[in-house]
Specification:
Elements (H helix, E strand, L loop, with lengths): L4 H13 L3 H14 L5 H13 L3 H14 L4 H13 L3 H14 L2 H18 L13 H9 L3 H4 L1
Helix pairs in contact: 1-2, 2-3, 3-4, 3-5, 4-5, 5-6, 6-7
Length: about 150
């Protein structure tokens, strides 16, 4: 007897939590093959499983499918951004988040905006520090005494 979609999905999620990613992947893939219009959460589950298996291009494909099916839902943009970050494609991840902000509802945009701001902060260059401002004047004078006037100016 075949299990209903929700039961199969729950079984896949249990296997995922147990670390049995290959088995979970088989279940999520079978759902997507057999059911005409499964919930987007199944695609999300399979994308997360691909990520655990380090199959990032396949995870990204599922995330893009999520976006194509439901442009107004943040979950596809969030998953695609996560995958791109794991692939060290932070610029592309920022682009996905920005694109998502144009398409999602106001409630979802807060979550997406927060993730985008965190990524921007992570990717921002470190603030430069003028070491001469931190050193004692005597030490600065000693350092500069080794340089010619032409090198200082």
């Amino acid at each position: 007897m075949a299990l209903p979609l929700v039961d199969k999905q729950n079984r896949g999620q249990v296997l995922y939590r147990q670390g049995k990613y290959r088995e979970a992947l088989e279940i999520f893939s079978s759902i997507l093959e057999k059911w005409h219009d499964p919930p987007i959460s199944v695609l999300d589950n399979r994308a997360a499983t691909y990520m655990k298996l380090k199959e990032f291009p396949k995870a990204l494909k599922d995330a893009r499918s999520m976006i194509n099916r439901e442009k107004a839902m943040a979950s596809g943009y969030l998953r695609a951004g996560q995958v791109l970050q794991r692939m060290d494609e932070n610029d592309k991840a920022q682009g996905i988040y920005e694109y998502g902000l144009k398409n999602v509802s106001v409630g979802d945009s807060k979550l997406l905006r927060g993730v985008l701001e965190d990524l921007r902060a992570k990717c921002a260059p470190a603030k430069a520090m003028d070491v001469l401002m931190e050193l004692p004047v005597e030490l600065i004078e000693m350092i500069l005494s080794y340089l010619s006037f032409r090198n200082i100016v």
